[in-house]
């Protein structure tokens, strides 16, 4: 049977994006909902034919342990709640898919990995771009040398935050500003396009603290990563402009995606030897990146393999995120490889 997911947090992503995607899945289905809004939970459950016993509030969430229909808990809550619900889900004997950013600190990521390990449960991060056809094709082209030796990656992600009351602008819930949200895409792109782990980071921040949106978290953050091969990545995130871009330069050409990491409508070009062509990748391995992500984890749970974007991958990003913030704060380059 397809494995059952419980969606925790019926917000714009959990309810608006993920739940409709079960229709495109082969190995996954919606099995339960967890919400602080009983009327909403009841309505969503009814729409999807779920029994009343598969509706949970945050307070009685731990009862999910007794629900054999639920194999996987998918945490779609504000960032600072990821660790708590991942750990509670693992203790309830469920595998966990957790949204990005994995959590708001390295310490939380480590606690999440430890809890899943102790319960012998799997943990995956909702890094959907690893299932998005253009990003997959760009990774393949980078690895096979289509642009020559990779020398430089640039990635910028951002959108305009308009409402100062949103949780994304409250540090206690978000853990940080644009870096914790869209910056994760730029950071991920730098790592999956180069296929390397950075050895040094230099960052700076620009935030108008008089702007009521940015009293608690950063607006623009800009950072450079150095890689062992000598490649460099120049990354950015912001909450005051829309941008969504990945550029990879090799010594023989380039691969460019813009928009790069949207839910749909991404575009990609490859330039080599002075010739430029737009790439229309063959349909990806799944109907959509979301179905690919959901079915991948169901398959991992079924077969016992690790997810390609496991908790370790989220932890690697969070270590770099902490270094980016620290570098911006201290105004200096930080080594990430333990050398001084
Ligand atoms: P949202 O504000 O639309 O939804 C958040 C949900 O959490 C709501 O149902 C809300 O009621 C619930 N919630 C519970 N306690 C809350 C509290 N104390 N304060 C605020 N909300 C509370 O947010 P979203 O856009 O759905 O984001 C949820 C998570 O999903 C975030 O971690 C975000 O980074 C991630 N996300 C990922 C993607 C992606 O493409 N992978 C896209 C959007 C969001």
From TrEMBL:
Alphabetic keyword roster: Oxidoreductase
Domain of life of the organism in this record?
A: Bacteria
**Keyword Disulfide bond part of the UniProt annotation:** no
Domain Gfo/Idh/MocA-like oxidoreductase N-terminal, chain residue ranges per copy: 4-127
Signal peptide bounds: none
Query: Where does the record place the Gfo/Idh/MocA-like oxidoreductase C-terminal domain?
Result: 146-335
What InterPro entries does the entry give? Gfo/Idh/MocA-like_OxRdtase_C, Gfo/Idh/MocA-like_OxRdtase_N, Gfo/Idh/MocA_oxidrdct_glycsds, Glc-Fru_OxRdtase_bac, NAD(P)-bd_dom_sf
One Gene Ontology term of the molecular function aspect = nucleotide binding
Name the UniProt record assigns to this protein: Gfo/Idh/MocA family oxidoreductase
Q: Which organism is it from?
A: Sphingomonas ginkgonis
């Amino acid at each position: 049977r397809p494995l059952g997911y419980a969606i925790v947090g019926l917000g714009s992503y959990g309810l608006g994006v993920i739940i409709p995607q079960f229709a495109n899945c082969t190995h996954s289905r919606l099995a339960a909902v967890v919400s602080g809004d009983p009327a909403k939970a009841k309505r969503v459950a009814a729409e999807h034919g779920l029994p009343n016993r598969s509706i949970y509030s945050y307070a009685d969430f731990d009862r999910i342990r007794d629900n054999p229909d639920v194999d996987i808990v998918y945490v779609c809550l504000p960032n600072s709640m990821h660790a708590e619900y991942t750990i509670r889900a693992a203790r309830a004997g469920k595998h966990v898919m957790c949204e990005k950013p994995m959590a708001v600190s390295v310490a939380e990521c480590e606690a999440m990995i430890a809890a899943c390990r102790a319960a012998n449960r799997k943990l995956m991060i909702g890094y959907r771009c690893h299932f998005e056809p253009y990003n997959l094709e760009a990774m393949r082209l980078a690895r096979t040398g289509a642009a020559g030796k990779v020398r430089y990656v640039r990635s910028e992600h951002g959108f305009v935050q308009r409402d100062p009351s949103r949780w994304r602008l409250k540090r206690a819930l978000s853990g940080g500003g644009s870096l914790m949200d869209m910056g994760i895409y730029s950071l991920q792109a730098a790592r999956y396009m180069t296929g390397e782990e950075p050895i040094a980071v230099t960052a700076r921040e620009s935030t108008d603290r008089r702007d009521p949106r940015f009293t608690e978290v950063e607006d623009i953050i800009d950072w450079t990563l150095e890689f062992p091969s000598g490649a460099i990545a120049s990354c950015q995130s912001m909450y005051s402009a829309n941008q969504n871009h990945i550029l990879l330069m090799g010594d023989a050409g380039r691969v460019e995606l813009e928009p790069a990491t949207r839910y749909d409508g991404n575009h990609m070009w490859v330039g080599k030897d002075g010739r430029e062509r737009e790439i229309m990748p063959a349909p990806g391995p799944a109907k959509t990146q979301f179905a690919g992500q959901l079915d991948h984890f169901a398959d991992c749970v079924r077969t016992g393999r690790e997810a390609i974007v496991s908790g370790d991958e989220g932890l690697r990003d969070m270590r770099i995120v902490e270094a980016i913030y620290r570098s911006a704060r201290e105004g200096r380059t930080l080594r990430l490889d333990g050398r001084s």
